[in-house]
């Protein structure tokens, strides 16, 4: 019996020694991520649950978006950043989807923009958030100058500009707009002035972007395995 207890203790200690703490960066992007949100937001709750299911602890540190991405690339403390849409990159590798985000356009209530294809948006002045990935086609038309777009540092700024008629519409996640209009004091008064356009750009998968290194790929694989052990949809639904 004593020998069995010793063996069990050694196994337990061995498992404990393999548990690691992982650091990722994120941004204030409620309801998906935010320092003061319940469980730090829907995407953070999913990420922490997935890593916990594999015996690891996740610590998320929050920065402005551009800095969050840069730190994930330059600072060895961090293995990556999230939530992010997948895109072509030499610097990062992407996890399996950890939820979805309905990406569309916020417009003035009673003054909807009309479009069927992305190229129809060339007739409008749009707002985007600096360094956000949208869709390849939309970002390409903006980069070429065919779509007139103004960049701001956060979604709330675009909502204010749409409400004031300074731009025709702005790219935004539908859940983000809903949260902002319900919870941000300076935007509640705009709830009857703006609305989502009926047509979505895309219902985009959300991912963790891990640094494209051996260490980053190791954590990506651990996270992907952890996703299989949790109910992603239920966790997301609880926080959205």
Automatic annotation (TrEMBL):
Range of residues in the leader sequence: 1-19
Q: Which UniProt keywords apply?
A: Signal
Keyword Oxidoreductase part of the UniProt annotation: no
Q: Which family does it belong to?
A: Belongs to the bacterial solute-binding protein 3 family.
- Its recorded name reads ABC transporter
What organism does this protein naturally occur in? Lacimicrobium alkaliphilum
Lineage at the top is: Bacteria, Pseudomonadati, Pseudomonadota, Gammaproteobacteria, Alteromonadales
């Amino acid at each position: 019996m004593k020998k069995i207890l010793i063996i069990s203790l050694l196994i337990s200690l061995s498992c404990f020694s393999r548990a690691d703490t992982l650091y990722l960066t994120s941004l204030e992007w409620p309801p998906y991520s935010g320092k003061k949100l319940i469980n730090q937001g829907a995407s953070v709750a999913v990420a922490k649950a997935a890593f916990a299911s594999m015996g690891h602890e996740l610590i998320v540190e929050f920065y402005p978006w551009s800095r969050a991405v840069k730190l994930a690339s330059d600072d060895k403390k961090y293995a990556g950043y999230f939530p992010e849409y997948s895109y072509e990159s030499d610097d990062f590798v992407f996890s399996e989807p950890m939820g979805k985000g309905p990406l569309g356009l916020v417009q003035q209530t009673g003054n909807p923009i009309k479009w069927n294809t992305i190229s129809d948006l060339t007739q409008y002045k749009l707002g985007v958030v600096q360094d956000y990935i949208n869709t390849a086609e939309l970002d390409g038309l903006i980069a070429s100058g065919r779509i007139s777009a103004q960049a701001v540092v956060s979604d709330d700024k675009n909502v204010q500009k749409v409400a004031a008629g300074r731009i025709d519409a702005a790219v935004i996640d539908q859940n983000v707009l809903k949260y902002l209009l319900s919870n941000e004091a300076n935007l509640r008064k705009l709830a009857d002035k703006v609305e989502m356009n009926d047509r979505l750009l895309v219902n985009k998968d959300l991912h963790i972007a891990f640094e494209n290194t051996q260490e980053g790929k190791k954590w990506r694989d651990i996270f992907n395995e952890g996703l299989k052990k949790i109910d992603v949809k239920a966790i997301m639904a609880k926080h959205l």
